[in-house]
């Protein structure tokens, strides 16, 4: 059974709880294994935190559209924001995972987790908005 949930959230970290609840709801509705739901939830949180903290030059309220779709085989997350153009597939360097924790710069691991935990990721810039699609397959 296909389940879809669309949310329009403010560019505020207090909105993360709504996202966590929505991911959990779709995971439960689709009888997804908890470890895969956790991966989707973690990656979504990292990307939203990055967008809120680094995506805008002002303190104005921005809207971020998040659409979650789950069926028996695929969990899809679509994120649309009006932040700076940023393609996480090409604009973010790979973190140095061999460096000691004190030698690493802050940041970069969230995008690394996205690349590792998601089965497919697609990005496009359209009408001055970032469109990021994350795909997690049950048997990925």
> What would CATH call the architecture?
2-Layer Sandwich
* CATH structural class: Alpha Beta
CATH topology: Heat Shock Protein 90
**Number of separate domains:** 1
Order of helices and strands: EHHEEHEE
The amount of beta strand, in percent, is 25-35%
Question: What's the short story on this structure?
Answer:
Helices cover 31% and strands 29% of the residues. It is an alpha+beta fold and 140 residues long.
Quickly list its features.
140 residues; alpha+beta; Heat Shock Protein 90; five-stranded antiparallel β-sheet; 29% strand; globular
Structure description:
With 140 residues, the protein is α+β, with helices and mostly antiparallel strands. 23% of the residues are buried. The protein has one domain: Histidine kinase-like ATPase, C-terminal domain (Heat Shock Protein 90). The chain is globular, with a radius of gyration of 15 Å. β4 and β5 form a beta hairpin. The model has no long low-confidence stretch (mean pLDDT 89). α2 runs antiparallel to α3. Helix content is 31%, strand content 29%.
Q: What is the fold's blueprint, element by element?
A:
Elements (H helix, E strand, L loop, with lengths): L2 E8 L5 H14 L4 H21 L8 E8 L3 E8 L27 H9 L2 E7 L2 E9 L3
Antiparallel strand pairs: 1-2, 2-3, 3-5, 4-5
